[in-house]
Amino acid sequence: MHLTKEEEKILDGEHGVILERSLRLLTKIGDFENADKLIPISKSQIAGVSFKTAGKPTLDLVEHIAEEKVRVKTLATLNPAGMPLDTWKELGIPEDFAENQLRLCKAYGKLGIKPWCTCVPYLPQVGNIPEKGEIVGFSESSAVVYVNSVLGARTNRHGGLDALASAFIGKIPNHGYIKKENRRGTVLVKVKCELKGTTDYSALGYFLGKEIGKGEIPVYEGIKPSQTELRHLGAGSAASGSVALFHVLGVTPEALSFEDAFGNRSFSDKIEVTRDDIDTIFQEYSLSETPDLVAMGCPHCSIDEIKNIAEMLRGKKIIKDTRFWVCTADQIKKEAERLGYSKIIKKAGGKIIPHTCVVVAPIEEMEIQNVIVNSAKAAFYVPRMTKGQVNCGLLSVKDCIQQITNK
After folding, report:
1. What pTM value is reported for the model?
2. Where does 285-406 sit in CATH, by number?
3. What CATH number has the domain spanning 5-180?
C-alpha cells in the first residue's frame, strides 16, 4: 500500500507511539484487503463502549491512550454505553459496573470523542450525519448498514479498535464498500407479502441475513419502507448476516433503477420472501413467560417512534412488576420531554432511557430473566450477550404494549 511521506513519518514513530501503532494497524488491514492507499475521513463512530462488552482490557487501553494526550482528527461519536450515564441508579445498575463504565466514557471523552453514546449518530437531533458519497469510518453494524444503504455515504464495517485508529489518523484504507464498483447489488430479493410496521421489516432483514452469504448485497423489490423501517431492515440483516449494504429499488439513493442497483454486474441469486418466511422469525423468538422487561430502541428510537409509543400508551397503565424501557439518544430524549411524550410514557409506568440499550446493559445482573423486544436484532443478541441467562421474545410495538398494559 502506498504511503505519503507524512504517513511514513507517522509509521516511523515521529509523531508518537499511539499514532504509530494506529497507522500500523490500518496498514496491516489495508495490505490484507489489497488497498492501494489511505484516504481521508472526517467522521467516525466508535464501538467498544459498554463495559459489558469492552471489559477491563479496553478500559485500561483507553485510559492509557488518554494519558498520552492524543486526540481524534474526526468528528467522532460513541456507541451506546452499558447504562444511562446520569440516572443509572434508578435502573438498579450494579455500582462496580457503573464505576467502570463512567471511567471508560470519561477516558474516551479525553480523546476528543463526543460521549453521546448512541447507535443512531446519523439522526438529525444527534448530528454526526454523513452526506451522500462521503467516506467515513463507522463501527456499529446497524449504523454501518444505514449509512451505506440509506444515506449513500461509504464506510466499511469497522471494529471498535480500527475505527478508533482511523479517527486518530483521519484516514482509512481504500477498499471494500468505499469503491463504487463494490457497491452493486448481488442478490435480487422479491418480497411477496405485505409488511406492517418496523418489526416486520426487522424480521425481513433478519430472515434475509440468514439466507444470503457473507459479503452479498441484497436488492429488495416490492417494498416501499419509511426511513424508520429502513433502519430496522438494515439492523436485522446486519445482526444475522453481517450485511453492510443493501438497496431498495426506487427508494434508496443508489437504486433508483434496476440498472443503478446492479450496473453491469449479473446478480448471483434470486430470493422470494413470503409471509411464512417472516412468521418463522417471530416463531423463533416466541416467549410464553410474562416479561420482566419490555424494551424498545434497537437501534435507538427516533422521535417519531417515541411519539408512536406515547400515543399507544396514552391512558394506559403498564402491569405491575414489568419494566418498560424506550432506549434512545440523549438529544432525542430531551426533545421527547419538550414535546410531552416523556410525560405520557412515565405516567403509564415506563421510562425513556438514554445512552444504552437492552443488548449492552447488564440485564442478567438486574433480576431480569424474560424480555420482549420489537427488534429482531435485539432478539438475536439478548440471549447471546447474557450467555443464555435471559430469554427473549419478538413482538410488534402494538403487540408489546397490548400484552403489558391495562386500560
Report:
1. 0.96
2. 3.30.499.10
3. 3.30.499
